[in-house]
Amino acid sequence: MLSAEQLIRYKRNILLAGCGEAGQERLLAGKVLLIGAGGLGSPAAYYLAAAGVGGLGLIDPDVVELSNLQRQILHNTGDLGRPKVDSAREKLLALNPDLKIEAVAGAFTRENAAALIARYDFVIDCTDNFPARYLLNEVCVRSGRPFVYGGVLAYAGQAMTIVPGRGPCLRCIFREAPGEGAPTTGQVGVLGAVPGVIGAIQATEAVKYLLGAGELLTGRLLTFDALTMTFFEAKVQRDPDCPVCGRKQSGGIA
What we know:
Blueprint: H1 4-9, H2 11-14, H3 20-29, E1 31-35, H4 41-51, E2 55-59, H5 84-95, E3 100-104, H6 113-118, E4 122-125, H7 130-143, E5 147-153, E6 156-162, H8 170-173, H9 185-188, H10 193-211, E7 220-225, E8 230-235
Helix pairs in contact: 4-5, 4-10
């Protein structure tokens, strides 16, 4: 049962069709893991914390650097040199003391991925490299855990939700990682508000999943172009020959 304080804090959630007090209780019982506490993880975590998603997991091996502050809004100048997960945890608890936060100051690896993901209902891909994304995709598909992909570069961003057994996985679309000559944000930059937009979309997908509300971005790759202020949606089919979720894979979802 929600406390009197929670009824006030989450009033705008409770008023929503498809949420109500029962939905807010589901959010408070929900657990979401964020892989990365930077450009995407910052807005995603803030909105999840504000919404009252009661269990948040943060994993990131990095410390806060001055160049992060242009877009990574969980951190400030006083956090320079601190582990990002510690800085993030402090800000999130200051916003909402209802939360229980697991902060892991380390890399997301094949050794810890399965155990981490098993503790959560939903995962948010806030990584910045394809090896980590491919590992996340593989473990989530094998364990049946839903997650939302997000990527940003320059003035553009993308998002798509993967629900194993209900549509394509990440490798159905991005079969091979970009080559060595592919541009990165470290080379061409990124407008700080773009990860804000994509991270907010990722948080929205997580909340919708926990509530069972609306339609997820399953089988729909959503692309945002900040220069033209347009969104483009591409419908994506599952690839039966996908090396992760294809029919031929041992343990794959037929």
